[in-house]
Amino acid sequence: MNTNTLNKTISLTAKDRRIEALLKSLSVLFLAAMLMSLASCNSSKYTERDNQEADYYIVPKPSKLIPDEGAFLLSDDVDLQAGEFENEANFLKDYAQSDFQKAIEVSEDGKPVIFTKNPSLGEEAYHLKVTPEEIKIEGGSAKGIFYAVETLRQLILTENGDLIVPSVEINDSPEFAYRGTHLDVGRHFFDVDEVKKYIDILALHKINTFHWHLTEDQGWRIEIKKYPKLTEVGAYRNGTIVGHKPGTSNDNERSGGFYTQEEVKDIVAYAGKRHITVIPEIEMPGHSSAAIAAYPYLSCFPNEKTEVDNDMMSEKSKQLQAEGKNKIVQETWGIFDDVYCAGKDSTFVFLQNVIDEIVPLFPSEYIHIGGDESPKANWERCPSCQKRIAELGLKDEHELQSYFIQRMEKYINSKGKKIIGWDEILEGGLAPNATVMSWRGEEGGIEAAKQGHDVIMTPTDYCYFDYYQSKDKENEPLAIGGYLPVEKVYSYNPLPEELTPEQHEHILGTQANMWTEYIPTMDKLEYMLLPRLAAIAEVAWTDNADKDWSGFKERLTGLRKKYDQMGLNYATQVFSETEADNSK
Question: Long-range contacts: 439-444, Cβ < 8 Å, 24+?
Answer without folding.
Answer: 439/372, 439/463, 439/464, 439/513, 442/496
